[in-house]
Amino acid sequence: GAVVSQHPSWVICKSGTSVKIECRSLDFQATTMFWYRQFPKQSLMLMATSNEGSKATYEQGVEKDKFLINHASLTLSTLTVTSAHPEDSSFYICSAPSARGPYEQYFGPGTRLTVT
Amino acid sequence: DAKTTQPPSMDCAEGRAANLPCNHSTISGNEYVYWYRQIHSQGPQYIIHGLKNNETNEMASLIITEDRKSSTLILPHATLRDTAVYYCIVRFTNQAGTALIFGKGTTLSVSS
Fold it and tell me: Is residue B33 within 8 Å of B62, Cβ to Cβ?
């Protein structure tokens, strides 16, 4: 079945540095991908919609200058957390709509970011 | 999207059927019911979806009431690996290219 991968699976960085997270669709093309953030014991919160060839669409309250999204190709979207702070520590998950039809979305395994 | 209501938590003994309810009383005629689950520290996984008829696949069964105002996800023989948060989501099929919006879900704990 369709697979979405993320890299890295976990990362620890120092406050003030930037971190890039990759999301790849492995056997299908995705013109759209979605980025979520999940804090401990909470549900997934949609951050932004990544569109191949155009600017990302951010949800209300998400800083576009802090969370840079680049959909470089039909199989790759990247999320860069710039000037990371401890409050950015979270579980980041991407997803892409299924190429087989309108009924499923495939999620990546997630990236655990810890900012010290 | 129609709003859904799920119990925050449920327990189930290993080997028994797990029946997870979802209330979606404001669902409209063209909205499907989807179920996803998230095992701890993993991305969500699609389970099943349906419109009005009961559905079954290798993972679970979905029972939708005749008035479509509620549904039940059934895991026929729960195992420890089914311990996860289960999300019931209602949406239109023409939203296929849009993001899923997650509620709080039901945390299912399967114990031996």
Answer: yes
CA distance readout (Å), B35 to A59, A104, B62, B91: 23, 10, 9, 11
What would the pLDDT profile of B65-92 be if each residue is shown by its tens digit? Answer: 999 999 999 999 999 999 999 999 998 8
> From CA A35, how far away is CA A47, in angstroms rounded?
6
Give the number of other Cβ atoms within 10 Å of residue B55's Cβ.
Answer: 17
Task: For chain A, say whether B29 makes contact (Cβ under 8 Å).
Answer: no
Cis peptide bond upstream of A8, omega within 30: yes
- d(C-alpha A69, C-alpha A22), whole Å: 10
Q: Quick count: other Cβ atoms within 10 Å of Cβ A40?
A: 7
From start to end of A1-115, where are the E strands? Answer: 4-7, 10-13, 19-25, 32-38, 45-51, 57-58, 67-73, 76-81, 90-97, 105-107, 111-115
Interface residue of B1, B89, B102 to substitute, partner A, most A CBs within 10 Å: B102
Name the 3-class secondary structure at A101.
coil
